[in-house]
Amino acid sequence: MSPAATVHWISHPEVEIEPGREITRWRLSPRAIARMRAAAALPELAGIASVWASTETKAIEGAGLLAGALGLGVGVHPGLGENDRSATGYLPREEFEQVADAFFARPHDSVRGWERAADAQARVLAAVEAVLAAAPPGDVAIVAHGGVGALLLAALSGRPISRGLDQPGQGCRYAFGRADRALRHGWVALPEA
To answer: CA 39, CA 36: separation in Å to the nearest integer?
Structure first.
């Protein structure tokens, strides 16, 4: 494996909010589809050798757009899923933000029945290790979610779990070294089409 190989963590862009549908089955919005297509044309993503996603519809759709543009298939790993929020299901934006703040602020507590941040962090770390062990040599793209992406970012940078490490908006990416797990750059927004 090349010491220069890079892992690109990409959080899915905007979704079509459907309060009556399970959150894990929400789909990408038309804007998100256009943004993923624009991201697939970025020169820094041109060398990707494999694309992976969580089992959630929005991540699989995003990964499919990227993989299709690169002539690749999509691998799926259930451990890459967003923190489990099924205890509350859909929450209106303001309420969601308050619960998310508490999720990051109290990583060893289950906030309103959500998966604990510490547990979600351990899960996503193990999933990334499994993906990188299974992926062919070269650059890897993981299309997943912002919350667990922030938890992974905390671990990679040796910092405590904090909402301050969360993505600045839906549809962002960061990169780290495949061999050394050293952060190459922090969150950058995906381009607009």
So the answer is: 5
To which H or E segment does residue 101 belong?
Answer: helix 93-105
The tens digit of pLDDT for each residue in 9-24 reads: 999 999 999 988 999 9
Decide: pTM greater than 0.90. Answer: yes
Pairwise CA distance, residues 159 & 52, whole Å? 25
Residue 174 CB coordination number (10 Å): 23
Q: Which helix (H) or strand (E) covers residue 74, if one does?
A: strand 74-76
The string of pLDDT tens digits covering residues 123-140 is 999 999 999 999 999 999
Task: List the one residue out of 135, 121, 122 whose CA is nearest residue 5.
Answer: 135
Decide: helix, strand or coil at residue 174: strand
